[in-house]
Amino acid sequence: MLGSSGRRDIRPLRPARHRRSGAQRRRLGALRARRGLVGTVFASGRALRVDAAQSDPRFRRIEAFGETVYRSFLGVRIASGGRAIGVLSVRHVSQRAVTDGESALLARAAATLGPLVLSAQEPQPPTAAGARAGLVLPGIAASPGACVGVGVAPLPTANLDAVSDRSCEDPTLEEDRFRRAVQEVRAEVRDSGARLARTIPSEAHAMFRMYAALLDDETLFAGGIDRIRAGAWAPGALRAAVAEHTQAFDAMEDPYLRARGEDVRGLARRVLLRLQSSATAATTYPECTVLIGEEVSVARIADVPPELLAGIVCTRGSPHSHAALLARALRIPAVMGVMDATLARCRGGRL
């Protein structure tokens, strides 16, 4: 984002050409060679259900896929625009029959993920432009473009890491409060998606359906509910449950999958906001708003009327995040990875 003389400039750096790691090359080779059950799904394009996987002649244990011992298998190919991208699979350590409902659910998930994965894998290069005089803050290009606007950090903010452990007086009431907060955030997400339905492509709009589905999924907050029933207060239970849930994402080598941890934390922060205050103050957004923050979520972006949103700057995130994908769909510039200490001074200033 390029400001005129005397304004703070935030300059995206051209991302380095993506090079696959050795593990990624091994996985891709196994897929293309049709090795194992996963490779069979990738090559055929058809869903595959196997109740006794190790008895199937196509079974191969391929370490590149992170496979451990399993006995039942369900796999669906992820594709977009006729291009095969990968395989979404579920494996069980015990032998069991896979139901038609489970197959249909995985197929819907793969259909939703296809366009999102493809778009996130191919971030567009930034437009070439030179920054004029002023403070230059380096960052990572997530969406191309240039703008001049006013830095806005939506308030209030919720910090999961700052939540302490504490006990509650009535676990039943605390669980009701927690579930009510989740329901309110689910309604917010659906309303945000409805507002942007005519503004963004259908593949980008699928993110809001996926977020609503995440909030409907009992497993996402199951650990939190268990902790509340054991006597923990809702914010602390939420923090611990989200930390457990995102730990696996954060350890993943694939940058797209690793960025999904950001999505879960973004939803959790919205829930925490509801737990901390039943009434959220409305933010007034000026013309040419540039959203700034530690991690600007899709829900935060959707809070701003599209005609007022000029750009996005945050200290965390990546070109593979859903926030970056939404920025590209809205055709607004976005820069990630800007230094936190300096960005804090940009609130209310011209960028």
SS field, number of helical segments? 12
Which assembly state applies to the chains in this document? Answer: single chain
Mean pLDDT: 76
User: How is the largest sheet built, in terms of strand order?
Assistant: 1-5-9-8-7-6
Shape annotation: globular
Largest sheet descriptor: 6 strands, mixed
Describe this structure in words.
With 351 residues, the chain is α/β, with parallel strands linked by helices. 43% of the residues lie in helices and 15% in strands. The protein is built from twelve helices and nine strands. The strands form two sheets. A six-stranded mixed sheet has the order 1-5-9-8-7-6. A three-stranded antiparallel sheet has the order 2-3-4, with helices on both faces. Helix 11 (322-330) links the parallel strand 8 (309-314) and strand 9. The model is unreliable at 1-8, 10-20 and 123-133 (pLDDT under 50).
